[in-house]
């Protein structure tokens, strides 16, 4: 049952992705991407990942607000058409070959519903599930992984987020009045 | 034309925002504090806290939100959240013998399924929530306020008010 | 089958990145790729009739060990989603700067206007 529901939701996501990329109206394109995020959140809820579902839903809302407020109000002119014909044909052929290769590669994976930790008994996930509650005292195993067992990962993630945010702030900085006056005089 | 009254959205949006903003903030704090017992955690709690201020900005205008959480305060909170996380990790060397050691739980074991049952994991969650919430609110304010405007044939990036009346031809 | 559908979604996002002219469409293509990869990683850890990896007070530990889904991909994806939001804001900032410089979101026009 869960497999069927997830298949339906992924099919819905594919249709929404095609609409988002092919429509000429930018606002409806962004709203279609929001539909993809909501469907992904429901899929996360179905496969037993409520942490990810909450985070995905909230991040979806914030990223849609940022996209609409920051880009749409600048330029609403629809840019139709693709790039030049020759390059487009080669790109689509390469994408098709890429998809065929991936089709072969994904067929060699284990079937859906059998995680790696049930096939290999020395997988790290078995350790986390067996002794995570006793060793850290946290009943949410995901939190005990991201903050205790793999704390270095979270530290690196905080660093990446910090760098991205301050990089964006530095890009969006408006010059001070003195410097702008100097620049205008110079030009 | 009174400009201060024109900021923000309609009165329906403002009323609903006034009723719900406290509960949304409280939900973010709950997600953060109980992240080690229930679904949630520092990341989702921080994003929910940022969404509260984004709601304030969209409903009441920029000044209302910036009076609650100013730009300087937001950047200070951003840096201090990251440093607090690093400090908690470094205290593990001092007391537990390794980086990121859970020293509180090992020294003072407590009952399970309580708020203070996981040692320093709630402290890490709180620092991450402060960092994520402050930085995401800051980037939203910067990205949504600045606008490219054409002045004398040259395009300039200036900060504008939020809901100025749209020029003709640009409105939908 | 479900993994292949995820990969089809990834390929559609790649098509948007490589074949579209509008910068906003390129950003949307990157978002679609990100969603598909997150979904694929979470689906890899699903166990049949699995439950969320959160211990309840009324649950015995043995039942939990044999029923919980894989928590490791969830921990990795949880950080990746928030990083995605930071990277999205960086991309939006760069696209606004490009608009300020060239006056358009069209990347082929930008090639012509290069100075």
Topology:
The complex is a heterotrimer of chains A (187), B (172) and C (115).
Chain A: H1 2-22, H2 26-46, H3 50-72, H4 85-107, H5 124-136, H6 141-149, H7 151-171, H8 177-186
Helix pairs in contact in A: 1-2, 2-3, 5-6, 6-7
Chain B: H1 3-6, H2 11-33, H3 42-60, H4 62-68, H5 71-96, H6 103-107, H7 121-145, E1 146-151, E2 154-159
Antiparallel strand pairs in B: 1-2
Helix pairs in contact in B: 2-3, 3-4, 3-7, 5-7
Chain C: H1 2-19, H2 23-44, H3 61-67, H4 71-102, H5 107-112
Could you please describe the fold and organization of this structure?
The complex is a heterotrimer of chains A (187), B (172) and C (115). Chain A is mainly α and 187 residues long. Chain A is built from 8 helices and no strands. Among the domains of chain A are: 1-81; 82-114. Chain A has helices spanning 2-22, 26-46, 50-72, 85-107, 124-136, 141-149, 151-171, 177-186. Chain A starts with a helix and ends with a helix. The radius of gyration of chain B is 21 Å and the shape is elongated. Chain B has helices at 3-6, 11-33, 42-60, 62-68, 71-96, 103-107, 121-145; strands spanning 146-151, 154-159. The longest helix of chain B is centred in the middle third of the chain and has 26 residues, at 71-96. Chain B has one domain (3-142). In chain B, helix 3 (42-60) packs across helix 4, helix 3 runs parallel beside helix 7 and helix 5 packs antiparallel against helix 7. Helix content of chain B is 63%, strand content 7%. Chain B has a two-stranded antiparallel ribbon with strand order 1-2. Chain B has 7 helices and 2 strands. Chain C is mainly alpha-helical and 115 residues long. Chain C has a single domain (2-48, 63-112), classed as Helix Hairpins (Orthogonal Bundle), CATH 1.10.287.3510. Helices cover 74% and strands 0% of the residues of chain C. Chain C has helices at 2-19, 23-44, 61-67, 71-102, 107-112. Classes of the chains: A mainly alpha (187), B mainly alpha (172), C mainly alpha (115). Chains in contact: A-B, A-C, B-C. Chains A and C meet through helix 1, helix 2, helix 3, helix 4 and helix 5 of A and helix 1, helix 2, helix 3 and helix 4 of C.
